[in-house]
Amino acid sequence: METIRTHQSTFSTVSLLQIACHLPGTDNSSVESPVFLIDLASIPLQSIYQLIKDAFVSPHVLKLGFRFKQDLVYLSSTFYSHGCEPGFDRVEPFLDITSIDNNLQPRKPGRRLSKQTKSLATVCQEVLGISLSKELQCSDWSQHPLTEEQMQYAVVDAHCLIHIFEVFKAKVVIEGNSVESVTGLQLSHLDLGLKQIHDTQTKCVVSNLVKL
C-alpha cells in the first residue's frame, strides 16, 4: 500500500484505488481473480460512489486490507470532497491482514502480542516468498498516466493480500489454530474466528489505496 502526500494539502486524498477480487467462477468449480485499478483523479467520483460503497458494506463480501483503517478515512474524505456522502466509516465484514499475521505468530505462554508492525513487503516475503519492489513503491504515483511497471506493481500489491489470506486460512484449517482476537475496525464480524469467516463467506475483496 503506497502512501504519497503533497505539501499543498492538509489531508491526504486518494488517487488510485486498487481492488482485487476472489470470486467463484461461472461453473462454481473455478475461481476468478480480477484486479481493478481505478484512477479516481480522472473520473467523476459521483458516478462510481454507490457501486464502491455497496461492495464495501455488503455483508456477503469479506473485505481484506492492510493497516486499512486510516485509508478508509482518506477514501471517505476524497469522495466527500467531490460532493458524495461520507460512507466508508463502516466497512464489514472486514479483516486486517496485519492482525491475522500478528495473531498467528508463535509466542510463549503469558506473553503479549508484539506491537511491532510489519510492512506488507515483509509479510509478502515471509509468507509468499516474493519481493515487492521498493523502487516502484516509492516512485512518483502522482504522474499520469502511470507507467506499465507501476500498474503491474499496483496489481501485485493488491492481489498478494488474497494469496496471504489463503495461506493463513490453510494454516488455521490444517493446524486447528483459531484467530479469536483479530483486531482492526471494531465491527460486528470481527468477533468471528478466521475459520468461521472462511466457512461463511463466498466472496473476497481486497482494497488498497495510493494517496496523494
From TrEMBL:
Pfam families associated with the record: DNA_pol_A_exo1
Domain of life: Eukaryota
A Gene Ontology biological process term: nucleobase-containing compound metabolic process
Domain (3'-5' exonuclease) ranges: 1-173
Segments traversing the membrane: none
An MF annotation (GO) of this entry: nucleic acid binding
UniProt-recorded name of the protein: 3'-5' exonuclease domain-containing protein
